[in-house]
């Protein structure tokens, strides 16, 4: 059964500013009177938040496949217990990361390839359908810019295990995202996240208006 809500995901390399922009999105949706849920991956529900701590703890070394499976496990619980119920209630779901993160970080960054997609298709399948976003908003920055922001403490986030990877890993991740944009044409909007926060949000706002409010704006025209 097709859900009636809208599913929007923010994607991007580390240091792309997703946390900042999600806060701005939340404020904007409140101003518009939208019924929405804001969440994150890995996390969003109790079990997934515990898995998040395991994945991102700087003291926890693990193989790429273990990392992939942990992300998929957290995703499954988050989807079934938070995302699907909200979508079925007709709500807008705004999520910080989803499947494209795994395809980029583990598929390209860790070199696991097709296995990541196969695992995640199982994780996001429920009641005969796969839950893909209505739109992935991709905030694009180079590793030099993103990691520079993190290590200069220009963000309010803690440095985690993935932040400490070599720059070559982050370069592969970004290259993965750019390939996915071509492969999944129509499922991404790419935004230059090296701009100021205000300009980045202006670009995001135009996407939200088109996806969420175009019909209501026409009603008043």
Output the number of helix runs.
8
How big is the Rg?
17 Å
Intertermini distance:
33 Å
H-E string:
EHEHHEHHEEEHHEH
Beta-strand content bin: 5-15%
Per the CATH scheme, the topology name is Rossmann fold
Helix content: 40-55%
- Strand arrangement within the widest β-sheet reads 2-3-1-6-7
Question: Mean pLDDT, as a whole number?
Answer: 94
Any low-confidence stretches, pLDDT <50, length ≥5?
none
Shape: globular
Using the coordinates above, name the CATH class.
Alpha Beta
Q: Largest sheet, if any?
A: 5 strands, parallel
- CATH architecture annotation name: 3-Layer(aba) Sandwich
Number of domains: 1
Q: Tell how many strands the DSSP assignment holds.
A: 7
**Structural class category:** alpha/beta
CATH superfamily: P-loop containing nucleotide triphosphate hydrolases
Query: What oligomeric state do the depicted chains represent?
Result: single chain
Which structural traits does this protein have?
221 residues, 7 strands, two-stranded antiparallel sheet, alpha/beta, five-stranded parallel beta sheet, 8 helices, globular, Rossmann fold
């Amino acid at each position: 059964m097709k859900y009636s809500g809208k599913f929007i995901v923010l994607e991007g390399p580390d240091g792309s500013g997703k946390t900042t922009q999600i806060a701005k999105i939340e404020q904007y949706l409140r101003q518009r009177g939208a019924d929405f849920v804001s969440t994150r991956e890995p996390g969003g529900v109790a079990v997934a938040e515990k898995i998040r701590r395991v994945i991102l703890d700087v003291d926890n070394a693990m193989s790429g496949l273990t990392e992939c499976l942990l992300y998929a496990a957290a995703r499954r619980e988050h989807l079934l217990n938070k995302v699907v119920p909200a979508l079925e209630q007709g709500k807008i779901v705004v999520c910080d990361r989803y499947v494209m993160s795994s395809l980029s970080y583990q598929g390209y960054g860790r070199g696991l390839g097709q296995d990541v997609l196969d695992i995640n298709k199982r994780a996001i399948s429920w009641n005969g359908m796969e839950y893909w976003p209505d739109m992935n908003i991709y905030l694009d920055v180079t590793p030099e810019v993103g990691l520079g922001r993190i290590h200069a403490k220009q963000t309010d986030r803690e440095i985690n295990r993935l932040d400490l990877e070599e720059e070559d890993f982050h370069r592969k991740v970004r290259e993965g995202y750019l390939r996915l944009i071509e492969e999944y044409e129509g499922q991404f909007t790419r935004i230059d996240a090296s701009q100021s926060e205000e300009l980045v949000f202006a670009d995001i706002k135009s996407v939200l208006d088109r996806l969420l409010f175009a019909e209501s704006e026409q009603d008043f025209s």
